[in-house]
Amino acid sequence: MDFLIPLETSASGLYAQRKRMDIIASNLANLETTRTDKGGPYRRKMVVMRSKSMAGSFRNILGRQIEGVQIEQIVEDKSPFKKVFNPSHPDADKDGYLLKPNVELIVETTNMMMAKRAFEANIAAIKTARQMIMKALEIGR
Q1: Which residues of 17-52 are buried (b: 16+ CB within 10 A; e: fewer)?
Q2: Three-class SS of residue 36?
Q3: What is the pTM of this model?
Q4: pLDDT by residue (tens digit) across 67-107?
């Protein structure tokens, strides 16, 4: 049913942004984690999303239509760790340097705000689509 497509599109956006916020929260929670199960400091994680499209006869006429987003994978940021001089820390190397996670508070806060705004936009789109569907149903009365 074509009238459900806007709802499905926004729902996929809600899911993707919620997952993105979960990963950002994990990054923020591990801002100072210098030792993980893998050994070494926590490495920042990022969500990789891609558009998903559905093919239909009308959509083929208009060309490729994007209908939502999906999470492709969660990857680790390969940027270097921060190196700080802290000889009293138990995880410091022999020269007194400590490797800290490659997580930046400002970057994560900004990303969280963008994810929140995208989440809110998807909720607004769902409300608008719902109102249009209700109005369309009223036409048939």
Answers
A1: beebbebbeebeebeeebeeeeeebbbbbebebeee
A2: coil
A3: 0.82
A4: 788 899 999 999 999 999 999 999 999 999 999 999 999 99
